[in-house]
Amino acid sequence: MHEAAFSAYAKAGGAGICIQKTHISAEKWQRRSSRSAGMHFVRPAVLRIICNTAQAVNVRRETPMAATHLTVKGLVIRETPFHDADKLFDLLTENGILTVQARSVRKPGSKYAAVTQLFAYGEFCLRSSKDRYYLDSAVSLNLFYGIRTDLDALALASYLSELIRKTTSDQPQPQILRLCLLALHHLSEHDRAPEMIKAAFELRLLAELGLMPNLVCCPVCMRYDVEDPVFRIDEADVFCASCLYVHKLHDYPATASVLQAARHVLYAEPDRVFAFRMHGRSAAQFAGYAEKYLLYRLGGTFPALEIYKEMTAKT
């Protein structure tokens, strides 16, 4: 029998029992204790319970803590200097946002400096310890180099990452990661107008968050081909101009092309969200509607949005 078992029993109130350092069964210990003078009688059932408890404690102590490792594909959406040469960065994955500490990546010649920079997409091997993830290794998959050569694209990408940080939780949301990768791809390739990328991202993000507007038909006349559409932002609906008897502050009149583009963004397959083009007055109206609807639904302010507007206004 284990020494720890008898010590535990003695502390629990078994005073007066002569305890020897030996490893024998409960029955043998009972027979020996009954022949010893001055020793109290202890039931075998009690001794068995003590033995089982001691064995469980010893097994728990001898079992090492399993190291938690995780391999994920993710996008760096924020980076912060930490200590002398370390870095903290937020990693957008299919399972939500993870905060990772990368050690010594800010030193010259670090092999993980590129994959841990802002807007880098890669495969990361992480180690979890004390409620924090640490970087063990990483391989870059796409650095979106074209974004870094255009200040307007960089400012817009910063705004998109700010939106994600303020709206995305640690719950699995793989659609948001795919949406962000598509937006950064078009920004890097310069094959879509930045204003259209911004508007499409805003509307589709709200749809993925459960804030999709109802643009199927006019709720009054139930017509799909809405005549002279008016977006009622506070009600998340679209009306025919002739069906509105009272105009409200948050009414946003637009052309039929704007309604068609909004429907495409909301109802298209994930890979086809940005597969459209708009120009002129309709493009400006679509961008205005998407931004107004997002600000109304989310509230608050977005400093990166103000910076982006200032930069595009100068150009």
Question: What's this entry about, in short?
Answer:
The chain is an alpha+beta fold and 315 residues long. 41% of the residues lie in helices and 19% in strands. The chain folds into three domains: 3-62, no CATH class; 68-143, Nucleic acid-binding proteins (OB fold (Dihydrolipoamide Acetyltransferase, E2P), Beta Barrel); 152-314, Recombination protein O, C-terminal domain (de novo design (two linked rop proteins), Up-down Bundle), CATH 1.20.1440.
Q: Can you offer a commentary on this structure?
A:
It is a single chain. By secondary structure, this protein is an alpha+beta fold. It folds into three domains: 3-62, no CATH class; 68-143, Beta Barrel (OB fold (Dihydrolipoamide Acetyltransferase, E2P)); 152-314, Up-down Bundle (de novo design (two linked rop proteins)). Helix content is 41%, strand content 19%. The chain has helices at residues 3-11, 26-35, 44-62, 151-167, 174-189, 194-208, 256-267, 280-298, 303-314, and strands at 68-82, 86-93, 96-102, 121-129, 132-142, 229-232, 237-240, 251-253. The strands form two sheets. The protein has a five-stranded mixed β-barrel. A hairpin with a 3-residue loop joins strand 1 (68-82) and strand 2 (86-93). Helix 4 packs parallel to helix 6 (194-208) and helix 4 packs antiparallel against helix 9 (303-314). The protein is elongated. The protein starts with a helix and ends with a helix. The model is unreliable at 1-23, 36-40 and 59-65 (pLDDT under 50).
